[in-house]
Design brief:
Elements (H helix, E strand, L loop, with lengths): L9 E8 L1 H13 L12 E7 L3 E4 L10 H6 L3 E4 L7 E3 L2 E9 L5 H18 L5 E2 L6 H4 L17 E3 L2 E12 L4 E10 L16 H14 L3 H5 L5 H16 L9 H6 L1
Parallel strand pairs: 1-2, 3-4
Antiparallel strand pairs: 2-6, 3-5, 6-10, 7-8, 8-9, 9-10
Helix pairs in contact: 3-7
Length: 264
C-alpha cells in the first residue's frame, strides 16, 4: 500500500566523489534541517559512488582496526562516517543516503520505511531481496575481532538475499536542542570487491583472519553474483528511485541542492 511520507522530496544523483566529499555532503544535508540552516532543509534521497575506493570507519570505531599504510599503498582512501557501525570497503557498490526531519519516527521505524523502499527498488531491478527481521546482539558481537567489518552481520531491517547480506546501512540523529534530523546511508553491493576489506585490517591472529574472510564470503552477496552479469549503476539507481516513489507515494523533484553542494 502506498503511504505519503512528505509532499516535497528531492532526488539527486551526485555521481563519483572522494570519501571525504561524500561524507561531508551527507552530513551537510542532515544539518540543513537544524539551527539557522533549517529553512534550507528538504527531505532528500541521494545516490552516489566512490572514487577512489574508500574504507569508511564508523563514528566511534577504533582507527587502529585498519591498516592505513596498506590502504595508502593500494590507493584506497580512509574516511570516518558521521554514522555508527563498523568498517566498510566502498568499491563496487551504489550508495544511497536519506536525510529528513526526525518527527515522531523511531530509529527502527525509519530503518523499516527505508528498507521497504529499497527492497521495492531491488525487486524492480529483478532481485528477490528481503528485510532481516531479527536483531543480533551487537554488544556481544562487537567484542569479537571478526566483527570489524560491517558486512559480517545483518541488523534488523537491513536487506538480504537468501539469508546473505546485500545492503548494509547506518543511521544517526543530529540535534540542535530543539529539532532532530535523520541521516541514514548504506551500500548496495554490486560486485565482490567489498570482501577485500579483510586484507586491509590489523588482525594479527591468522585464525581470526581466516574466519573473517570466510564470513565475508559466506554471509554476503552482491548483485553481480545474484544476476550473473555486470551491474549498470544508472539502471539500478533508476529502480531505487522508482522503489521509493512507489513505496512511499511520493514524486521526487530533481532540483540539484547547490547550496549544500557548495559547502560540503
Amino acid at each position: 500500500m502506498k503511504r505519503t511520507v512528505s509532499a516535497a522530496w528531492r532526488f539527486v544523483d551526485t555521481g563519483w566523489n572522494t570519501g571525504d566529499r561524500n561524507m561531508a555532503y551527507d552530513e551537510a544535508l542532515a544539518r540543513s534541517f537544524l539551527g539557522e540552516a533549517m529553512a534550507e532543509g528538504i527531505p532528500t534521497l541521494r545516490l552516489f559512488r566512490w572514487r577512489p575506493w574508500a574504507v569508511s570507519l564508523g563514528y566511534n570505531q577504533n582507527a587502529a582496526d585498519l591498516d592505513a599504510a596498506k590502504c595508502s599503498q593500494e590507493g584506497i582512501d580512509v574516511v570516518r562516517r558521521p554514522t555508527g557501525g563498523r568498517a566498510i570497503l566502498h568499491a563496487q557498490e551504489l550508495t544511497y543516503s536519506v536525510t529528513l526531519p526526525a518527527g515522531r519516527k523511531t530509529i527502527h521505524q525509519v530503518y523499516n520505511d527505508i528498507g521497504r523502499a529499497l527492497v521495492r527498488g531491488l525487486n524492480l531491478f529483478g532481485v528477490d531481496a528481503a528485510l532481516q527481521r531479527s536483531q543480533p546482539d551487537f554488544r556481544s558481537n562487537y567484542r569479537q575481532p571478526s566483527s570489524i567489518p560491517c558486512f559480517t552481520s545483518s541488523a534488523r531491517y537491513e536487506i538480504e538475499w537468501r539469508g546473505r547480506k546485500l545492503v548494509g546501512s547506518a543511521q544517526r540523529r543530529f540535534s540542535d536542542g530543539e529539532r532532530e534530523a535523520i541521516l541514514q546511508h548504506g551500500s548496495i553491493l554490486c560486485g565482490p570487491a567489498h570482501r577485500r576489506l579483510a586484507d586491509l585490517l590489523t588482525v594479527a591472529d591468522p585464525a581470526v583472519l581466516d574466519r573473517l574472510r570466510r564470513d565475508l564470503e559466506e554471509k554476503t552477496t552482491d548483485l553481480s553474483e545474484i544476476l550473473g552479469r555486470e551491474i549498470d549503476l544508472d539502471s539500478l539507481g533508476e529502480c531505487v528511485r522508482r522503489g521509493f516513489e512507489s513505496e512511499w507515494g511520493v514524486v521526487f523533484s530533481t532540483d540539484h541542492p547547490q547550496d549544500v553542494h557548495a559547502h560540503a
